[in-house]
Write a sequence for this structure.
């Protein structure tokens, strides 16, 4: 049995969002929605995080930062694109410096649409992410066994 | 029994204590951590995680891929854990309190070196702060063991000589708190630092919003971080044991009083944790030393001269 899904620690990064989605992400982590019921803990350290919540699109400035954070996270890890900007570039898609959704920089596992994304959608997305996390953890485990 | 027989008996007791502590302390510490998280959540008007959440967290950490900045760091963390378990074993087998205090300090030092060894600026910042924390609480902890010695001298029925042996409490006529209650208050003050609770959680906070990346554990991930969690569980059990020590006397039945007192202290710490924001290190150092000087110093002077 995988325990990863029971303790999804999240890290939040704000790409080029309008901050609407950021406020919603923080609201999701606030006592009102109580993400800790599912074991969600907000960390500031990519090395401790299991789920990467990205808001906003990637642009020429932040694409390296997004990749850096993703690379620092330890497997198994899951990326959730929060808000339509993070999914596809959204309202900013044709800005001169915007590259597009987060999937232009790193592999995304769950897309949470909305402008701004609602906390309910986010909780659903995290729970969906947890399932992916468990899947990846099992895979990692069997790989480890295979090597041994 | 001759002196050698006593020494062997004491050694065997400590070894049994260490093994028992290594098995039981993580279990008890894990449950305490779970209670902490549920209680904190309730204090904030939330439902909170399941009681076994700390256990799930650690199991998850051991499932993670192994990435470590250097192998030395893991070795230091393992040493810190081993010495914490030895310290706990010495204490709970009724061994020498002074020895226990020194060994647990050694454990803290290994943990500090582990953080420094990563060379990450954030971890180094955490390690520097942890060093300040050790500097803040250590005087009070040492005064606590000296006060324990003097209290046993005052309370042991055959009188005259005190002892550092924790097991001596069972021979006392009254719990040591009756003559060293100021030291108890001082120890309660620094317990907040030792348990890494707000307002003194300077070196590594559990709350992302008030921490610089993650303090000391910035470069620790996966199983290393899991070991750190287990280390804290063991430490917490030991420190609460110190609190309980003040309330035990006469016979083993009074252990219940000690346990209740320790749990009450833990509850108080959780309450403090939820009600205070972090302070600057200057305040921590000054206040901890002032408390040690006033509570510990006056108490010891009274015991020595009256
Ligand atoms: S999806 Fe809407 S609210 Fe969210 S960052 Fe984009 S524009 Fe802002």
């Amino acid at each position: 049995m995988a325990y990863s899904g029971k303790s999804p620690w999240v890290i939040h990064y704000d790409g080029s969002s309008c901050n609407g989605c950021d406020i919603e992400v923080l609201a999701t982590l606030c006592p009102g929605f109580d993400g800790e019921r599912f074991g969600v803990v907000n960390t500031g350290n990519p090395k401790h995080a299991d789920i990467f919540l990205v808001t906003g699109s990637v642009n020429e400035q932040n694409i390296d930062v997004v990749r850096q954070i993703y690379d620092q996270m330890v497997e198994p890890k899951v990326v959730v694109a929060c808000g339509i900007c993070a999914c596809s570039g959204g309202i900013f898609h044709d800005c001169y410096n915007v590259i597009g959704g987060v999937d232009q920089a790193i592999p995304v596992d769950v897309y949470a649409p909305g402008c701004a994304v609602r906390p309910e959608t986010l909780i659903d997305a995290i729970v969906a992410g947890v399932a992916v996390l468990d899947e990846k953890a099992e895979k990692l485990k069997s790989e480890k066994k295979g090597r041994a | 029994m001759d002196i050698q027989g006593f020494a062997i008996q004491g050694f065997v007791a400590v070894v049994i204590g260490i093994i028992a502590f290594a098995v039981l302390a993580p279990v008890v510490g894990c449950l305490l951590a779970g209670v902490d998280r549920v209680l904190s959540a309730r204090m904030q008007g939330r439902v909170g995680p399941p009681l076994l959440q700390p256990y799930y967290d650690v199991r998850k950490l051991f499932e993670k891929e192994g990435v470590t900045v250097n192998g030395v760091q893991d070795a230091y963390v393992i040493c810190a854990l081993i010495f914490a378990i030895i310290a706990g074993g010495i204490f709970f087998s009724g061994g020498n309190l002074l020895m226990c205090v020194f060994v647990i300090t050694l454990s803290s030092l290994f943990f500090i070196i582990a953080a420094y060894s990563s060379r990450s600026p954030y971890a180094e910042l955490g390690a520097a702060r942890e060093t300040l924390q050790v500097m803040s609480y250590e005087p009070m902890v040492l005064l606590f063991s000296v006060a324990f010695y003097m209290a046993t001298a005052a309370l042991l029925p055959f009188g005259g000589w005190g002892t550092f042996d924790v097991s001596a409490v069972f021979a006392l006529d009254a719990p040591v708190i009756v003559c060293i209650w100021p030291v108890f208050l001082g120890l309660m003050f620094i317990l907040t630092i030792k348990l890494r609770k707000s307002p003194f959680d300077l070196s590594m906070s559990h709350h992302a919003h008030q921490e610089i990346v993650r303090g000391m554990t910035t470069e620790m991930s996966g199983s290393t971080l899991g070991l750190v969690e287990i280390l804290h569980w063991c430490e917490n059990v030991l420190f609460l044991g110190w609190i309980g020590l003040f309330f035990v006397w006469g016979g083993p039945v009074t252990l219940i009083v000690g346990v209740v007192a320790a749990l009450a202290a833990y509850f108080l710490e959780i309450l403090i944790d939820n009600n205070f924001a972090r302070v600057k290190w200057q305040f921590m150092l000054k206040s901890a030393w002032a408390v040690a000087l006033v509570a510990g110093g006056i108490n010891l002077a009274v015991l020595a001269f009256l």
